[in-house]
Design a protein that fits this description.
Blueprint (H helix, E strand, L loop, with lengths): L3 H20 L4 H57 L6 H8 L6 H8 L1 H4 L5 H11 L15 H17 L1 H10 L2 H10 L11 H6 L22
């Protein structure tokens, strides 16, 4: 792999050889060395310029993809967080909001530009975040469990875990978002609510658990004192 340090050293060595050959006027061999060294130096300089240009272009494309993806993921998080802060018995309202919620434009952009996507070190993490958000995009009113608190909070908890565990993800959210938006995101992902498992209330809201009142004893079933 060509690095700035190795490139500078190679250019220095080729230049030194060419200068030495130019200073020595004693034979045709010196002229030959001078010619070859100058040619090699020019060839490498041309190659290095091309590599740096390609690298700059790749970096620009990666930055563009990150802006699209990170802004959309942050918006998903903010919207879902606002949604679960409402009262728990709002599954039909959740549906009416979620059905027009996100476009997944960032995910589609990653699929359309695989070469750029595979250049992102955190690419698999971003894909897994989108996959998790997909869990709350469909189902319809006929299956309201999809919009229960367990289902809606799961992407938020997964997002929070990924954010806390990945330094590069945190760094890029900070780079892409405004200072105010990043401060808000950084505060919300560290809420204790997103660091624990689902509560009984949330599981009841999702239909995973059902609380049944204990039947009252009738007069005939009530124990009587023995004489």
């Amino acid at each position: 792999m060509i690095t700035p340090d190795s490139s500078a050293e190679l250019v220095h060595q080729l230049t030194r050889i060419a200068d030495a050959a130019a200073a020595y006027r004693g034979s045709a061999w010196a002229d030959w060395v001078k010619t070859i060294s100058s040619f090699a130096l020019g060839l490498f300089a041309s190659y290095l310029t091309g590599q740096l240009s390609n690298r700059s272009s790749d970096q620009n494309e990666q930055n563009k993809m990150r802006r699209i993806v990170y802004q959309e993921l942050a918006q998903w998080f903010f919207e879902l967080h606002s949604l679960v802060c409402e009262e728990t018995k709002l599954r039909r309202v959740r549906y009416s909001i979620i059905q027009n919620f996100g476009t997944f434009a960032g995910e589609e952009y990653m699929k359309q530009n695989p070469a750029v996507y595979y250049g992102l070190d955190e690419g698999p993490v971003l894909s897994s975040l989108y996959s998790c958000f997909h869990r709350v995009e469909g189902g319809g009113i006929g299956t309201p469990r999809v919009y229960g608190l367990v289902e809606v909070k799961h992407p938020l908890r997964y997002f929070s875990d990924s954010y806390r565990q990945s330094r590069i993800v945190r760094k890029n959210f900070k780079r892409v978002l405004s200072a105010q938006a990043f401060a808000s995101l950084d505060s919300l992902v560290n809420l204790s609510d997103y660091k624990r498992a689902a509560t009984i209330e949330e599981m009841v809201d999702s239909g995973i658990l059902e609380i049944v009142d204990k039947p009252r004893e009738t007069a005939d079933e009530a124990p009587t004192a023995k004489d």
